[in-house]
Write a structure and sequence with these properties.
The protein has 259 residues and is an all-alpha fold. The chain has 11 helices and no strands. The chain has a single domain, classed as Hypothetical protein af1432. The protein is elongated, with a radius of gyration of 26 Å. Bound molecules: fe (ii) ion (2 copies). One of its GO terms (molecular function) is phosphoric diester hydrolase activity.
């Protein structure tokens, strides 16, 4: 210590105590504000999620479905997207967007939508406008999840070989989100009871999916779905039992990954 320098006088204890108390209060206020902000964000995210699910349910309701199909479509599409190495935010978006793939059916008359038996050529033409109607409902927005929902709605009946509708796109020209949902929707439709047939077994479904590889569907996506089929089926069954859903997205296991 320099003997020439006077020893600095410590601040008055009362003043120091006050600073300390103010600091503690400031920190408490800061933590409370952060908690409130997190709670508000969670509430908003949940409201956003629920609103999108209800919108999807509106279309399925008209179609006479219980709504479980769209939960499966969301969860299984996200599962497959993760297998294909898509970024996590993209996978979360597809989980919310995929359930709205058939929302355009809102615009199809019940006389066609609910007609038992086959449709006439003219009725089929009207039915095949549902992707365009869906894209009109969901599109023209800068909200990423709705933009993805619009491209899925528009593209989920396109075929890899270019023979689908409404635009006859082929291969990579079809948005990847729509290619994923198309495969999952096909698998899910086969494993559901229909008025004209019973649900196919998992083995029969696998054979059907493999038969469409490269014609109807993207071969890489079919390969990923086939490789992970047991886990996709297990996730489907868990959703049907009410044990899993969109709140807890399933994560692929190492063994699921296609080679
Ligand atoms: Fe459709
Ligand atoms: Fe569907």
């Amino acid at each position: 210590m320099n003997p020439d320098r006077p020893t600095p006088t410590p601040p008055a204890p009362a003043h120091n105590d006050l600073d300390q108390r103010q600091l503690v209060r400031l920190l408490q206020d800061f933590h409370q504000l952060r908690r409130q902000r997190e709670q508000a964000y969670e509430a908003l995210a949940r409201a956003h999620h629920v609103t999108l699910s209800k919108l999807a349910l509106a279309a399925e309701y008209k179609d006479g479905d219980t709504g479980i199909h769209i939960v499966r479509i969301g969860a299984l599409s996200a599962y497959l997207a993760r297998l294909l190495g898509k970024p996590e935010a993209w996978c979360r978006d597809i989980e919310l967007a995929a359930p709205m793939h058939d929302i355009g059916k809102i615009g199809i008359p019940d006389s066609i939508l609910k007609k038992p038996g086959g449709l006439t050529a003219q009725e089929r033409e009207i039915m095949q406008t549902h992707p365009l109607i869906g894209a009109q409902i969901l599109g023209n927005t800068d909200v990423p999840v709705l933009a993805m929902a619009a491209e899925i709605a528009l593209g989920h009946h396109e075929r890899w070989d270019g023979t689908g509708y409404p635009r006859g796109l082929a291969g990579d020209a079809i948005p990847e989100s729509a290619r994923i949902v198309a495969v999952i929707d096909f698998i899910d439709a086969l494993t559901m009871d229909r008025c004209y047939r019973k649900a196919l077994s998992d083995a029969e479904t696998l054979t059907m999916v493999q038969a469409t590889r490269g014609s109807h569907f993207d071969p890489a996506i079919v390969d990923a779905a086939v490789a992970a089929f047991p886990r996709l089926a297990a996730l489907r069954d868990a959703i049907n039992r009410g044990e899993a859903g969109t709140q807890h997205p399933a994560r692929p296991q190492a063994g699921d990954l296609p080679h």
